[in-house]
Amino acid sequence: MIEVKVTDFGGASTVLSKEDERSAILAERAQRGDYDDELILEQLARNRVFLTDEGLARLREAFVVVVGCGGVGSHCTTALARSGVSHIRLIDFDQVTLSSLNRHAVATLGDVGTPKVVCLKKRLHQITPWVHFDLRNELYREEAADSLLGRMQGRKPDFIIDAIDNIDSKVSLLAYCHKNNLPVISSMGAGCKSDPTRIFVGDISASTEDPLSRSTRRRLRALGVASGIPVVYSTEKPGSGKASLLPLPEEEFKKGSVGDLGVLPDFRVRILPVLGTMPAVFGYAVANHVILKITGYPHEYVPAKGREKMYDGILAQLQGSEEKLARLTTPGEDAQGMKLAIGIMDVGYLVEEVYRGRSAISGIPTRLALVRWRKPMSGSTMNLDVEGQKISGVRLGDLVCMTKEEAAKHEKAVLRGDQIPEEFYDQEIVELVERRMAEERGFDKFR
């Protein structure tokens, strides 16, 4: 029997068992190529008959980068290694903690206090000793992207997996992959989710009901990336009795800068409620997508309903509204042919991200329009650029989302009339609109 002692950080300090020693020796031999390929093919026999010899060969030659080795990333990596991927780079700055054990794929009590990348390599080499792991025990950051996402033994990654839960790092990674045409898939938030039947794989433009997903989309739209990135996301709605992110206690704010409470700058300082099973479902969904794409296996996900035609209609209506308003506020000026400094991506951003796809007045999600919230100052609705082009002075922060019928009433009473929003609407509606506009101003710095 092995004597077990608990260390100061709650981990178990043990002497390696004979089984662990044998596994380490076997992995060392396999890394040198001293491992019968027939044994590997036998271990992968079920995948082999499913994917065919050609598909499995592609998988065995693939090089995959996993960024984030917590709940989602560890299950994803485990599935990839077990399925035959033989070249994996792991990137994570963090260590295994006691609270990691409710959702980590392979960590044991004895791994508490060790780097997550080291833990994954050690445990998975006991299962798939032939896998070549490249460990990067560091935080993903933009300035190191070329190195962290670069070549391994002369070859570019076949796929990059984003399993990061920090918004700044996530946006930076996805923008880099999009710019450099690197295949990537991103896991959205598994926290506070409990219904595995609501998990989908789709384009980032279609992901809903998830604050991490919404913030990621908004930041990426500001960088010019509106679609083209596959994500795993949950459509489960929050509700009464369901877990939610608890507010930070007031006494913590009184201690000073909240950011100083985190392990690293810009990282969350609150414990996110996570049901241990959900990160596993997310991780396996990510791994499944990567396996299908690399092997060329036929797959077709249920598509999200496109709303581009709706955005076109909203933009055309806004154009007409601005021309009418320019003629009203700038007498004697011809507003015909006036252009907007707002495009279809901006319309999608405002409607979906700022106003959650609903009217700010009634909450109705159909027949939507964008209209100015307040009457502009006389003469401020139209400008001329250097070539004499007439340009509307409207900006994203001026607009509110309503139904077409509500917009018509709003234009008559507020934009062409003498009322202000505070006189025309209930205080609750005014506060909601002002809150959403303040939210947009906060994100404007990323544009």
Automatic annotation (TrEMBL):
PANTHER family tied to this protein: TRNA THREONYLCARBAMOYLADENOSINE DEHYDRATASE, TRNA THREONYLCARBAMOYLADENOSINE DEHYDRATASE 1-RELATED
Domain THIF-type NAD/FAD binding fold: 46-301
Family stated for the protein in its record: Belongs to the HesA/MoeB/ThiF family.
Function in brief: Catalyzes the ATP-dependent dehydration of threonylcarbamoyladenosine at position 37 (t(6)A37) to form cyclic t(6)A37 (ct(6)A37) in tRNAs that read codons beginning with adenine.
Any one GO CC term of the record: mitochondrial outer membrane
Top-level taxonomic group: Eukaryota
Membrane topology: Multi-pass membrane protein
Alphabetical list of InterPro entries matching this protein: ThiF/MoeB/HesA, ThiF_NAD_FAD-bd, Ubiquitin-activating_enz
Localisation per UniProt entry: Mitochondrion outer membrane
CDD domains attached to this UniProt entry: YgdL_like
Gene Ontology molecular function terms on file: ATP binding; tRNA threonylcarbamoyladenosine dehydratase; ubiquitin-like modifier activating enzyme activity
This protein's UniProt keywords: ATP-binding, Ligase, Membrane, Mitochondrion, Mitochondrion outer membrane, Nucleotide-binding, Transmembrane, Transmembrane helix
Pfam families registered for this protein in UniProt: ThiF (PF00899)
GO biological process, one term: cyclic threonylcarbamoyladenosine biosynthetic process
Protein name: Ubiquitin-protein ligase-like protein molybdopterin-converting factor
Broad class of where this protein is predominantly found: mitochondrion
Gene3D superfamilies membership: NAD(P)-binding Rossmann-like Domain (3.40.50.720)
Entry annotated with the keyword Hydrolase: no
Species per Swiss-Prot/TrEMBL record: Amylocarpus encephaloides
